[in-house]
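Chapter review. Work through the record for Lytic murein transglycosylase B before attempting the end-of-chapter questions.
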Amino acid sequence: MKHSSCFSFLHCAPRRAILFLGCLLLAIPVLADTVPARTLTLSCHPPKTVDAKKYRNSEAFNQALAAFSAEMASNHGFDQQDLDCILNQARHNPTVIRRVKPFPAGTPKNWQVYRARFIESVRITAGAKFWARHKNALEKAEKIYGVPPEIVVGIIGIETTYGKNKGNFRIIDALATLAFDYPEHPKRDARLALFRNELESTLLLSSERGIDPMSLKGSYAGAIGWPQFLPSSIRKYAVDFDGDGKIDLRHSPVDAIGSVANFLAQHGWKKGEPVVFPAELQADCPRSPDTALNQGLAARLTLNDLRDVCVTPKSALPENVLWGLVDLQNGFDATEYWLGTDNFFAITHYNRSYFYAMSVIDLGQAVRAFREQNRIK
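Structure tokens for Lytic murein transglycosylase B:
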């Protein structure tokens, strides 16, 4: 059998072979250093004209963009010219700042007012049509991910009224504004870091998918498409559910259905487990329920834990399930209390709000009831 020179050498001279291998291993780092790193590219189309009066960034904002551009080139290997082409078009948007400012201190939360914005006839009717049009995709999502159709329908309805209101803010502008000029807030540093990460994810997503980042539009907070996913969530949880070979949450409601269901499954949704039950507090209870509140986005309490703080379910509860106590404040009226399972808290990972999660549940139930009443298949 004829060997190559290398293998013949190893076969005939073991001692010299060991020396040869040692030299080869020492050479590997040098060889590796000579391989050029992959350069990430971005699609960029510079505008023909810019309204200087309408779009005027502060010097500090432009400096922050320049520093971010250099960091992205260094950390990810982006072509610097591509980055500059994109980020030089980013504009500080004062409307975004106004939208994210919290309500004035002392404004009471009101669940019933919040609920009325979303559980209304126009959205319910649109939801029934969406369900009928995408029945097969919704059933497929339930089979794969275990998430019932009414929950997916509820989320897409709350987020965009089934694709009607996907937002018209340029994502680059919105995220740059929030990444480098978030208004005063107790958690300002965390918010700055969050939106800086989302701006980074936008550029990575655009490079990975061959998207012009300046074409991305969405909410004032940088959320995109039918389900209003942030760019980092698109990269982690979005799926090609219509089988066309690409993930497109801006134009494909079927991709949105699968992606919402996948997101919930990845955040603890348990197939077949209930979601939420009404509860009440005993009026003469000597112990406060406060210790059962604010336990994080997870169900941690047993029925015995709830009894210890005088929380009573209004209906029979399944055994061997953990619960979280949910308080829905109603302004100056009595607070509503509910008991949520891990499925309830999976929804709060989509939006960290009890009001939001309950609205999703209520809208989905209202759409299901409408379908049944009108015998919609």
